[in-house]
């Protein structure tokens, strides 16, 4: 570690490289003695040097650094001044007592700088002095900045003085309104509405936005009163504010007499150029309903880019679906425009109306394949047994993988429709793996002796993929009944098949003992994944008969097989394994050592405890830590028989 | 065997990364190479690593984290991890407008200055060079500018990257047509030999470039790179958080000789990172100069 003295001498070097390195080290070492030299460097004409000093001062921080930087605010050079401001914004929050007096300085610039810096303070102690500046400072720019800063601090304590400042001139009003919106205090609503009558059009529109953002219901009546008399652009803003405040409860909360009027205003606002106004109008209309409104919203949705405007599209579809089965959706489904048809399907998928199923089935074959895919996905979810013929027809006639998948899972998983067996089984030869996979699960769902026979025959083939599918399916449908095939599969040349056969055999472990014997033979498998699977299954189907085999697996060549075995022994608290487990503590692979320690912690008991104490003195930090955690675990365990 | 079951729920189910595991892995990655994986890339990480976990037969991301620390194959796995979190996308003459400014204005100026001083040692650093297209492009440009003089100059392009795998490809120097798509056609016969369907960098050009592994988060290693007149670090710092960007860009500044230039990717910015360089605006490109 470099010490500060050495660093100080670097900081007086004429070489800029040395200065930069010195500054870096001073920052890393939090070397406070370097502050005066670093502040000097901030004035350097070499920007590289300046910046290194800047970074270092930020790292050092504290009173020392802040008071040394403050005088730079009076520098004649703008970059130096701005650099100082920036440092103080980061560091000043903790050193308010050094900054607050500057609000009373004679120099207007300094007062502006101080107001600005205090805005980053994130400290309630800055509020009162800033309020004082906001209300009393003779200089408009100071008052403006004080309001901005009160807004950034964002504490309700500032609401009162900001409300008062609404009477200030327009320039200050801007920042006051923004600050009030950020703070969102109820008392500000009256202050802002009152100011509307004597403010410029720009300020009025800012106030409307602010009221909308604050979301306080109190503002609604006040806003409604101004609608009639406002020009369209302003009225659209009011519409947006009201929707934002009331949300979906709009219809119930609006006075009856106002509703139809308001709906008309919403339709107008749908045409506004501002997206936010449009979005509010959509939300409002979704709540109020009407085919004309749905058509307007649909037309906006159909102009969006499905990639770029994903989020917006999603929320518009949500709104559209809340309006139910509207006319515009029927038309789009029948029309030529595929993009529109897709939007309609996507919307209908969220509409719960008994008519939807029929509408989608009828339009299926008229549409192109992209639309068909999404129609059938929806139908597979919502349709019932009445749609069997429709789906069977698709399985027979369609060629698209995605469409076939939806049809397969509907007929298989959902309806278990046995007459579909031929067609589904044929799909196991499909060119795409994902189609094969869905078809396989569909066949498994249908089950039955005939289906099993098909797979038994399939297992006799030479294609390993077919055999894998057969083992998987037979294991799922009836492992006990197919045990002979599964036994043979345990010896299959493909490790993947052996693994699946193991899993199938394991599914029997609750009702018979054959599984263990079969499993054990695979503990010597040449493939480590297969051996791991065996150990894992012994864990899931644990019985004391498995223990000798597990102890054997502790000496497997593969470290991960060891790790899995340790997990199983720990999980089942196999006390008699402790002597063998302790032997693994001396393993060249640290992972094994750590897992051994964890295993001992899980098993518990005095001899595990003693072994752990011995390793807890290890030089290796991680091993020591693992041992301590394991010991703590044993100690936390309620007393138990040993 | 096909991938039939690998992605299905038949064995093991889907691998999800928990928040705690994500934070653990993210901090590990950051400590290793300075790349900050933002929260919104969590699913990307989960998705891309799920296959690694399956292949290694690991149960969860916590085990993967252990694997990266302790397994005898951890080094190899670390490079795989780097491959997952970075993209190595690159090509010859990537961003032609920027390279045009480089060739016609910057390199011409730097070489002009050197001639005045009688200095013929030109050093260029291509940091994050990926499979080598960028440093070889720079070699071509230098050769085009120096022409017959090239032999009398001492030119070296230091090309570095985090990933050994890309460096291996770079050292081979064999490329397909696609990666040449924005390369001026007349240059091909001058600098490449035909190798079946592919193109092989000519030895005279290859000897200008020296490749080496270097992790940009290793401050000491960065200090050891020979000082250069030009630093290219394009489309690399996008992976870094601001603090790491500051450190890396600071190191390039220190590496550059006064009057030298740094070039970054066209979508990258130094805003809030450094003010030390003087940005010089050209049509279609900004060059960052370390003033003398
Ligand atoms: C997208 S490529 C850019 C290649 C080339 N510069 C270009 O612009 O075409 C980004 C490269 O940065 C490398 N990289 C990412 N993080 C790195 C680090 N910490 N240290 C060194 N190289 C890194 C990656 O390995 C990758 O090859």
Characterization of the model:
The complex is a heterodimer of chains A (about 650) and B (about 290). Chain A is mainly α. Helices cover about 70% and strands about 0% of the residues of chain A. Chain A is flat. The two termini of chain A are about 50 Å apart. Chain B folds into 2 domains: about 10-85, Chemotaxis Receptor Methyltransferase Cher, domain 1 (Orthogonal Bundle), CATH 1.10.155.10; about 95-290, Vaccinia Virus protein VP39 (Rossmann fold, 3-Layer(aba) Sandwich). Chain B has 11 helices and 10 strands. At the A-B interface, helix 2, helix 4, helix 29, helix 31 and helix 33 of A face helix 3 and helix 11 of B. The structure holds S-adenosylmethionine. S-adenosylmethionine binds next to loops of chain B.
Query: Which architecture name of the largest domain in chain B does CATH use?
Result: 3-Layer(aba) Sandwich
Query: What general outline of chain A do the C-alpha atoms trace?
Result: flat
Estimate percent helicity of chain B.
40-55%
How many H/I helical runs of chain B?
11
**Numbering strands along the chain, what is their spatial order in the largest sheet of chain B?**
6-2-1-7-8-10-9
How does the helix and strand content of chain A classify structurally? mainly alpha
Strand share of the residues of chain A?
under 5%
User: What share of the residues of chain A lie within helices?
Assistant: 55-70%
CATH domain topology of the domain at 547-642 in chain A: Leucine-rich Repeat Variant
By DSSP, the count of extended strands of chain A is 0
Poorly predicted parts of chain B:
6-12
Quick recap:
The complex is a heterodimer of chains A (642) and B (292). Chain A is an all-alpha fold.
Write the layout of secondary structure elements.
The complex is a heterodimer of chains A (642) and B (292).
Chain A: H1 4-10, H2 16-28, H3 35-42, H4 47-60, H5 62-69, H6 78-91, H7 96-99, H8 108-118, H9 127-136, H10 140-153, H11 159-165, H12 170-183, H13 187-196, H14 201-214, H15 218-227, H16 232-246, H17 250-253, H18 259-269, H19 275-288, H20 291-302, H21 310-322, H22 327-334, H23 338-348, H24 355-364, H25 369-382, H26 388-397, H27 401-414, H28 421-426, H29 433-446, H30 449-459, H31 464-478, H32 483-490, H33 495-506, H34 514-521, H35 528-540, H36 547-553, H37 559-571, H38 578-583, H39 590-603, H40 606-615, H41 621-636
Helix pairs in contact in A: 1-2, 2-4, 3-4, 5-6, 6-8, 8-10, 9-10, 9-11, 10-12, 11-12, 11-13, 12-14, 13-14, 14-16, 15-16, 16-18, 16-19, 18-19, 19-21, 20-21, 21-23, 22-23, 23-25, 24-25, 25-27, 26-27, 27-29, 29-31, 30-31, 31-33, 32-33, 33-35, 35-37, 36-37, 37-39, 39-40, 39-41, 40-41
Chain B: H1 19-33, H2 42-56, H3 61-70, H4 74-85, H5 96-117, E1 121-127, H6 133-146, E2 154-161, H7 164-172, E3 174-175, H8 188-191, E4 192-195, E5 198-201, H9 203-206, E6 209-213, H10 219-224, E7 228-233, H11 242-255, E8 256-264, E9 278-282, E10 285-289
Helix pairs in contact in B: 3-4
The structure holds S-adenosylmethionine.
S-adenosylmethionine binds at residues 33-35, 86-90, 94, 128-130, 134, 161-163, 166, 215-217, 234-236, 239, 265 of chain B.
């Amino acid at each position: 570690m470099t010490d500060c003295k050495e660093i100080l001498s670097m900081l007086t070097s004429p070489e800029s490289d040395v200065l930069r390195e010195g500054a870096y080290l001073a920052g890393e070492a939090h070397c406070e003695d370097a502050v005066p030299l670093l502040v000097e460097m901030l004035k350097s004409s070499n920007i590289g040097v300046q910046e290194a000093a800047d970074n270092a001062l930020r790292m050092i921080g504290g009173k020392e650094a802040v008071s040394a930087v403050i005088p730079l605010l009076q520098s004649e050079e703008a970059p130096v001044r701005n650099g100082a401001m920036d440092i103080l914004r980061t560091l000043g929050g903790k050193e308010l007592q050094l900054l607050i007096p500057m609000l009373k300085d004679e120099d207007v610039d300094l007062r502006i700088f101080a107001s600005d810096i205090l805005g980053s303070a994130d400290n309630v102690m800055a509020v009162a002095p800033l309020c004082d500046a906001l209300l009393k400072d003779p200089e408009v720019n100071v008052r403006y900045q004080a309001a901005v800063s009160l807004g950034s601090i964002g504490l309700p304590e500032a609401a009162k003085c900001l409300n008062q400042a609404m009477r200030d001139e327009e320039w200050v009003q801007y920042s006051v309104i923004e600050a009030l919106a950020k703070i969102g205090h109820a008392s500000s609503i009256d202050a802002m509405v009152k100011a509307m009558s004597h403010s410029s059009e720009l300020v009025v529109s800012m106030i409307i936005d602010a009221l909308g953002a604050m979301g306080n219901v109190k503002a609604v009546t006040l806003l409604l009163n101004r609608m009639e008399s406002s020009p369209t652009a302003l009225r659209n803003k009011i519409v947006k504010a009201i929707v934002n405040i009331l949300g979906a409860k709009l219809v119930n909360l609006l006075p009856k007499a106002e509703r139809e009027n308001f709906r008309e205003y919403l339709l107008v606002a749908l045409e506004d150029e501002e997206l936010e106004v449009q979005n509010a109008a959509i939300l409002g209309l979704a709540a109020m309903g009407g085919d004309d409104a749905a058509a307007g919203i649909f037309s906006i949705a159909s102009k969006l880019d499905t990639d770029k405007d994903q989020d917006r599209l999603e929320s518009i579809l949500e709104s559209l679906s809340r309006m139910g089965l509207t006319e515009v959706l029927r038309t789009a489904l029948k029309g030529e425009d595929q993009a529109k048809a897709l939007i309609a399907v996507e919307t209908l998928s969220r509409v719960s109306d008994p008519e939807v199923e029929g509408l989608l089935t009828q339009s299926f074959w008229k549409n192109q394949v992209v639309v068909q895919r999404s129609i059938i996905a929806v139908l597979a979810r919502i349709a019932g047994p009445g749609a069997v013929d429709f789906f069977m027809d698709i399985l027979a006639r369609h060629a698209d993988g995605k469409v076939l998948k939806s049809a397969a899972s509907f007929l298989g998983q959902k309806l278990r429709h046995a007459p579909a067996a031929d067609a589904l089984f044929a799909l196991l030869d499909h060119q795409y793996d994902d189609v094969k996979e869905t078809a396989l699960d569909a066949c498994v769902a249908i089950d039955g002796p005939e289906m099993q026979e098909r797979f038994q025959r399939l297992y006799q083939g030479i294609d390993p993929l077919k055999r894998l599918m057969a083992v998987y399916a037979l294991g799922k449908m009836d492992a006990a009944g197919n045990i002979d095939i599964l036994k043979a599969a345990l010896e299959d040349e493909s490790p993947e098949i052996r693994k699946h056969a193991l899993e199938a055999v394991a599914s029997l472990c609750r009702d018979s003992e054959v599984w263990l014997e079969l499993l054990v033979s695979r503990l010597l498998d040449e493939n480590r994944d297969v051996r791991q699977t065996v150990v894992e299954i012994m864990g899931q189907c644990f019985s004391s008969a498995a223990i000798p085999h597990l102890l054997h697996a502790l000496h497997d060549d593969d470290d991960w097989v060891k790790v899995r075995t340790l997990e199983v022994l720990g999980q089942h608290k196999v006390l008699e394994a402790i002597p063998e487990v302790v032997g693994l503590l001396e393993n060249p692979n640290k992972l094994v050592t750590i897992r051994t320690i964890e295993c001992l912690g899980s098993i518990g008991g005095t001899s595990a405890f003693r072994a752990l104490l011995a390793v807890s003195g290890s030089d290796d930090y991680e091993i020591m830590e693992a041992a301590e955690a394991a010991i703590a675990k044993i100690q936390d365990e309620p007393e138990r028989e040993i | 065997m096909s991938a039939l079951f690998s992605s299905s729920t038949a064995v093991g189910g889907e691998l999800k990364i928990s928040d705690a595991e994500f934070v653990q892995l993210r901090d590990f990655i950051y400590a290793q190479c300075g790349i900050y994986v933002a929260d919104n890339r969590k699913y990307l990480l989960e998705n891309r690593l799920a296959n690694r976990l399956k292949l290694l037969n690991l149960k969860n991301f916590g085990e993967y984290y252990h694997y990266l620390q302790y397994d005898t194959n951890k080094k190899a796995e670390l490079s795989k991890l780097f491959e997952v979190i970075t993209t190595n996308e690159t090509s010859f003459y990537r961003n032609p407008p920027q390279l045009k400014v480089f060739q016609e204005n910057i390199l011409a100026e730097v070489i002009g200055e050197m001639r005045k001083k009688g200095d013929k040692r030109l050093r260029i650093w291509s940091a994050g060079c990926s499979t080598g297209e960028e440093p070889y492009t720079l070699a071509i440009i230098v050769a085009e500018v120096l022409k017959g003089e090239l032999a009398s100059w001492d030119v070296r392009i230091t090309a570095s990257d985090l990933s050994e795998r890309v460096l291996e490809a770079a050292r081979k120097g064999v490329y397909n047509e696609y990666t040449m798509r924005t390369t001026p056609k007349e240059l091909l016969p001058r600098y490449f030999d035909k190798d079946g369907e592919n193109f092989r960098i000519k030895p005279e050009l290859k000897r200008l470039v020296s490749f080496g592994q270097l992790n940009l988060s290793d401050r000491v290693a960065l200090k050891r790179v020979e000082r250069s007149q030009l630093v290219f670090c394009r489309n690399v710092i996008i992976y870094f958080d601001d603090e790491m960007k500051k450190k890396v860009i600071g190191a390039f500044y220190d590496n550059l000789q006064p009057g030298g230039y740094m070039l970054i990717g066209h979508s990258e910015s130094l805003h809030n990172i450094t003010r030390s360089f003087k940005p010089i605006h050209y049509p279609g490109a900004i060059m960052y100069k370390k003033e003398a």
